[in-house]
# Entry
Amino acid sequence: MISITIDSKKIEVEEGTFLLDAARELKIPIPTLCHHKALTSDGNCRLCLTEVTDNGRTKLVTACNYPIRKEIQVQTKSEKVVEFRKDLLTMMLSRWPNVPIIKEYASMYGAKEPEYKHPKRNEAKDACILCTKCVRACDEITWEKIIGFAGRGPDRHVEMPLGKHYDRCTGCATCAACRSWSSMCCTSCVTRVAWCSRIASWTNRAGARQTPRRCGSGSSSAFCA
# Structure
């Protein structure tokens, strides 16, 4: 077992335990958007950044995928960490100003919507924030890899191969905001609703609600971008 200190609280954990899990054992909240307990962590949202001191040297790390290998001291609310999260949330507000989870975190850290507007601004409440959970769920839980990312930079979005519907998608809703996987999609951009059979609905890049296309299984599905 390895002894570490998080916000002045001590805990012993097994080697390889991720920092986020250790913090949650101590009931210390760390914000996340891309993390889900059923998926591997990739730290892409960066909100879980924390300050780690190792042998007198301090660095910022993403808590969700930082494995504990030795005794360290961790600060989850240091001035540097709080300022980073505030700046990050300010940038998110410039692109997704009405997404509830982003607004909630922004309020916690004093982030306000900036004067500048992101070129791909999406004012929908259920806008896709590119957290990657739906893509990882399709890969790691269903082993299908039906959806993935296309485009680069501000044009990055989620879609099926070549932007066309893929019949292997059965509308299982593993990627969606539903009870089965504790709301995989944190913005409800991908949702599961009842309509004769299982249907996944989504929001396109313009923020307009679309009508799902039928797939071979009798279900419907498609994805946000």
Observations:
- The chain has two domains: 2-77, 122-225.
